[in-house]
């Protein structure tokens, strides 16, 4: 075994043009300095956008699901619940918007688990960067998907006859509030993504979380007719407050208490779940 | 702590719990890797190689023991370790959905390169690794050999001082394998330290200055390839004498110097003898002793056992053990 001293040898293997090119490419004149947390986070958000560019199929879910949900529920329940589909649409649309977007948040956990299974996350974990950057960046990238789902649902609603009294400002405020809440709720799915073993398991369990969260709320009907126990749950369900706030903002009649409730819920969710996520992320085996 | 060491580990332990049983994946591993050397960690599947490397690369926290890379503790000073270490392996992968170039640009950005700087660095590496034509293709379309090269390129974006390669050539065809070996040689020639795990004895023999043989989470032997082979004591000396009537005298000398039984070959001028454990010195004394006894020796060769034989002798089982159950399980 030759002593390796770092000096160049005349070994035939190492004198090829390829080896020379390799040397030159690997050599680094000056080491860059560590990127800021913001820069690292934005790089991961850029990655999420690149993935949308390369795998446009993933947008299928955020475009087709809202359309199916909206059409199905409006025409299925409209006549029975509100007397006419027109009438029901005014009530349902802010709710179905919330449901559509919240359903797309599960992909956060799904893609994260896929990254873990494929070993991509371990490369990120081996980098000298601000530790939450890969997760926060992915969540930021996901807000693009939520925005797309929102726009699709709203456009369809307008075509079908949804006439929000709050105007453009009210609708925009509603979308922003929804994005904030979705970002906060995504931390539930990052945890599932880190804990569960396969992307499909993440999908399954996430649906189990989302189903009661969105259906046992005021998305579809007024909770007044529900049994007491269920009403109790509906009242504390943050989705109920979110939907109430959305209806208020879009109709131009929002009370600050509902909006504030949602914002507080978003802060609490993030404050509790983000550290749990980071702990799991750091100690993953 | 020695300045001379790039990687140092003492008593590293990691167990994994599945239900009630605990698997001691790594069970007290010591390693000392000199700066600028290639260190091979050799063992079958499930021996604990990957787990050990993951601890050294700060991806796993050891349950016991300490380890440091270039003097930085892997637990207390993990970020410093991350900034000097490059990592390639089954578990540190690139994003298959992105193109090769995008992957390298992303990593360069994450190491702090400016946007144009990152693009330049990525393009340089793609070219040097023979991937320029595939730069705009998604990695999932790459062949096995290209895939391994982009993985290697990804770990070299920042020109790391210490490189961990986890089974860098598993599943590659001989040509791609040779390419990877050439890349490793260039890196080490330029002063990097490489720690590689492998199931292939030939790979360790070809690349590594020193080798640790690991089995059931423990280092069962350590040394240069030559020392490992010698420690098993199954090498043999072949001697050919000029005239058949010199053979008895030669046999007597060989037996006296080596202390092992001489085997007389069917060829009346040839004989051989096993080299005993730690018999290196004895072998060195053998030629002068033969000359002193007046025996002329036109042919003298030292046959060594292959590393396969070494592994079999050390562990009592074959190297290509694919069952994951080789990990020891204790309740």
TrEMBL record, chain A:
Which Gene Ontology molecular-function terms are recorded?
A: ABC-type transporter activity
Q: What is this protein called?
A: Transport permease protein
Q: Which domain of life is it from?
A: Bacteria
Family in the record: Belongs to the ABC-2 integral membrane protein family.
Task: Tell me where in this chain the ABC transmembrane type-2 domain is found.
Answer: 57-284
Spell out the PANTHER family in the cross-references.
NODULATION PROTEIN J
Q: Which UniProt keywords apply?
A: Antibiotic resistance, Cell membrane, Membrane, Transmembrane, Transmembrane helix, Transport
Question: Which BP terms does GO give this entry?
Answer: response to antibiotic
| Membrane topology note | Multi-pass membrane protein
TrEMBL record, chain B:
Q: Which residues form a coiled coil?
A: none
Question: What residues does the ABC transporter domain cover?
Answer: 7-241
What topology does the record note for this protein and the membrane?
Answer: Peripheral membrane protein
Subcellular location(s) of the protein? Cell membrane
Q: Which family does it belong to?
A: Belongs to the ABC transporter superfamily. Drug exporter-1 (DrugE1) (TC 3.A.1.105) family.
Q: What is its main location?
A: membrane
One GO cellular component term of this record is:
plasma membrane
UniProt xrefs under InterPro entries: AAA+_ATPase, ABC_transporter-like_ATP-bd, ABC_transporter-like_CS, ABC_transporter_ATP-binding, DrrA, DrrA1/2-like_C, P-loop_NTPase
Q: Report the domain of life of the source organism.
A: Bacteria
Keyword ATP-binding recorded: yes
Q: Pfam families from the xrefs?
A: ABC_tran (PF00005), DrrA1-3_C (PF13732)
Q: Which UniProt keywords apply?
A: Antibiotic resistance, ATP-binding, Cell membrane, Membrane, Nucleotide-binding, Translocase, Transport
MF terms from GO for this chain are:
ATP binding; ATP hydrolysis activity
| Name listed for the protein in its UniProt record | ABC-2 type transport system ATP-binding protein
Q: Identify the SMART domains for this entry.
A: AAA
Extract the SUPFAM superfamilies matched here.
P-loop containing nucleoside triphosphate hydrolases (SSF52540)
What biological-process GO terms show up in the record?
daunorubicin transport; doxorubicin transport; response to antibiotic
């Amino acid at each position: 075994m030759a002593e390796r001293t770092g000096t160049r040898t005349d070994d035939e293997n190492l004198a090829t043009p390829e080896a020379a090119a390799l040397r030159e490419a690997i050599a680094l004149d000056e080491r860059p300095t560590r990127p800021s947390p913001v820069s690292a986070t934005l790089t991961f958000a850029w990655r999420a956008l690149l993935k949308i560019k390369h795998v446009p199929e993933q947008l299928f879910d955020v475009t087709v699901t809202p359309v199916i949900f909206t059409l199905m529920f409006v025409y299925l329940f409209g006549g029975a619940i509100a007397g006419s589909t027109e009438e029901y649409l005014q009530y349902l649309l802010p709710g179905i918007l919330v449901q559509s977007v919240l359903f797309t948040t599960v992909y956060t956990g799904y893609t994260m688990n896929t990254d873990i299974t494929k070993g991509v996350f371990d490369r990120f974990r081996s980098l000298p960067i601000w530790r939450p950057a890969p997760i926060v960046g992915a969540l930021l990238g996901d807000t693009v998907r939520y925005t797309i789902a929102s726009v699709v649902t709203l456009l369809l609603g307008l075509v079908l006859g949804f006439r929000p009294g709050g105007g453009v400002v009210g609708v925009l405020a509603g979308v922003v509030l929804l994005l904030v809440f979705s970002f906060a709720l995504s931390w539930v799915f990052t945890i599932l993504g880190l804990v569960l073993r396969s992307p499909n398991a993440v999908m399954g369990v996430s649906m189990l979380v989302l189903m009661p969260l969105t259906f046992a709320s005021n998305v579809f009907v007024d909770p007044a007719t529900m049994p007491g126990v269920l009403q109790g749950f509906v009242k504390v369900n943050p989705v109920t407050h979110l939907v109430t706030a959305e209806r208020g903002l879009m109709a131009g009649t929002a009370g600050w208490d509902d909006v504030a409730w949602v914002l507080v819920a978003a802060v609490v969710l993030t404050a509790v779940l983000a550290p749990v996520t980071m702990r799991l992320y750091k100690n993953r085996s | 702590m020695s300045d001379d060491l790039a990687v140092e580990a003492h008593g590293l332990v990691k167990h994994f719990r599945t239900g009630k049983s605990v698997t001691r994946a790594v069970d007290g591993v010591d390693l000392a890797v000199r700066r600028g050397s290639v260190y091979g960690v050799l063992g079958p599947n499930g021996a604990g190689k990957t787990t050990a490397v993951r601890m050294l690369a700060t991806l796993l926290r050891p349950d016991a023991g300490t380890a440091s890379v270039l003097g930085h503790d892997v637990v207390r000073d993990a970020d410093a370790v991350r900034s000097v270490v490059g990592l390639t392996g089954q578990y540190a992968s690139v994003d298959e959905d992105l193109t090769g170039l995008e992957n390298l640009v992303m990593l360069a950005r994450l190491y702090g390169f400016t946007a144009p700087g990152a693009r330049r660095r990525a393009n340089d590496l793609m070219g040097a690794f023979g991937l320029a034509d595939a730069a705009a293709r998604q990695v999932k379309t790459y062949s096995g050999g290209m895939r391994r090269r982009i993985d290697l390129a990804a770990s070299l974006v920042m020109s790391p001082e210490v490189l961990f390669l986890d089974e860098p050539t598993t599943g590659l065809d001989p040509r791609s394998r040779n390419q990877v070996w050439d890349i490793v040689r260039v890196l080490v020639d330029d002063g990097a330290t490489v720690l590689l795990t492998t199931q292939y004895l030939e790979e360790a023999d070809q690349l590594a200055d020193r080798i640790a043989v690991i089995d059931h989470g423990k280092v069962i032997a350590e040394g240069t390839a030559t020392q490992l082979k010698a420690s098993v004591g199954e090498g043999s000396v072949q001697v050919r004498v000029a005239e058949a009537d010199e053979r008895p005298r030669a046999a007597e000398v060989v037996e006296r110097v080596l202390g092992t039984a001489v085997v007389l070959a069917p060829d009346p001028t040839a004989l051989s003898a096993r080299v005993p454990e730690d018999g290196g010195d004895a072998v060195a004394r053998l030629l002068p002793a033969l000359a002193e006894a007046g025996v002329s020796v036109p042919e003298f060769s030292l046959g060594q056992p292959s590393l396969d034989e070494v592994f079999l002798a050390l562990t009592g089982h074959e190297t290509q053990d694919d069952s994951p159950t080789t990990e020891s399980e204790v309740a």
